[in-house]
Amino acid sequence: MTSSLNDLVLVSVDDHVIEPADMFDKHMPDKFKDRAPKIVKGTAGAHHWLVEGKKAPGLGLNAVAGRPKEEFGFEPVAFDHVRKGCYDVDARIDDMNANGVVGSMCFPSFPGFAGARFQNPQDKDLGLATIQAYNDWHIHEWCGKYPGRFIPLALLPLWDPGLAASEIKRVADLGVHAVAFPENPSLIDLPSLHSESWDPVWAACADDGVVLSVHIGSAGNPPYPSDESPIDAWITSMPMSIAGAAADWTFAAFWEKYPSLRMALSEGGIGWVPYFIERADFTQAHHSKWTRCDLGGKKPSDVFKKHIITCFIDDAFGIENRHSVGIDMITWECDYPHSDTVWPHCPEVLWETVKRIPADEIDKITHLNAMREFSFDPFSALGGRENCTVGALRKLASHVDVTPKSLGGLAPTRDSSGPVTSADITRILSHI
């Protein structure tokens, strides 16, 4: 059991990969190779992906790990604007070791967190080939090169739930136990969570122990409060923005039909959860006579704690109230290379939050819950727990330079010396 910072075992269930330019070269079928997504260079040296000839804006938005904090608003638009660990798996392992992180799940970047940019293909055969090529690159090249270091995450052809179920089966046979799914599919012109058309997806996930990993912003980011609002307001509320989707998932009827099904609220935080499930239970008790919502005799809090995995970066209030959140379903995340990550100091920050709670609960939160729910076993792959600790991994990273470096990108453009506003960020993104 964990007794010190160096004895922590850290498994992150939410990080991000900036896809390298050659990712489709080996995995796209020959008949589609000339139509595969590709990187092009635009104005001012910016790199962009083209998907069926359409520009996918931004290379690695928010991928600012390793910069001075003053530059977090500089949006990277070229590969030389981000750390090599964002897109090169060898360098990523170095950065994980320097941060004491043994395991990582990496959400996509240019396709969108749930592959939204792949979900309305003009050519459905090309669309399916693109998703399968993406998955094969992710499984075999990104995750496969370092067994025991990554939790593979697959994308799905969500325009056809039958095809999506087949892809779940295919990747599950390759050892994948997580698939990306939008927090609210109806917002990207797909059926709602409550449509029976998704039953093949739920069944395939339940049958093969595959978690639906639902990232904040996977169906579109929440709107800015106003153009004049300091961007701090939006950043503050972003994790909690998933609460609306969490309610939709909690009150869904399919959990009774698929009792082993799990979903994860990726990058959603946990501090808000105790009131959320208290409110959900009150809603059921006070309103169900007229709403006629039936959860099979269970309270919403029961459904949430059984089926929904939560995760946090740094959430002292949530940890203090961990038993109200659901201690057996809390997981940790690093969020490398996005601006909320505290890389390379994650162990130090986390230890300050958890060091006063029982050692067995630290182990659940930092790795055991993630290992169980995502069928991930770094201990077997790496020769035992002793090789997976913060202390052991950092010994492998003495050569890694973690000094903050200025890397360039598009800076906020504002009319005064006041705070960066939502309008400033909108102007930046309009040029990417």
Describe this entry's structure for a reader.
- With 432 residues, the protein is α/β, with parallel strands linked by helices.
- It has a single domain, classed as TIM Barrel, CATH 3.20.20.
- It is built from 16 helices and 10 strands.
- The strands form 3 sheets. Strands 6-7-8-9-10 form a 5-stranded parallel β-sheet. The protein has a 3-stranded antiparallel β-sheet with strand order 2-3-4, with no helix packed on it. Strands 1-5 form a two-stranded parallel ribbon.
- A hairpin with a 2-residue loop joins strand 3 (47-51) and strand 4.
- The longest helix has 20 residues, at 124-143.
- 47% of the residues are buried.
- The mean pLDDT is 95.
List the helices and strands and how they pair.
Elements: E1 10-16, E2 38-41, E3 47-51, E4 54-56, H1 89-98, E5 101-107, H2 124-143, H3 161-172, E6 178-180, H4 199-208, E7 211-215, H5 231-237, H6 243-250, H7 254-257, E8 263-266, H8 273-291, H9 300-307, E9 308-312, H10 316-320, H11 322-325, E10 330-332, H12 346-354, H13 359-373, H14 378-382, H15 390-395, H16 422-430
Parallel strand pairs: 1-5, 6-7, 7-8, 8-9, 9-10
Antiparallel strand pairs: 2-3, 3-4
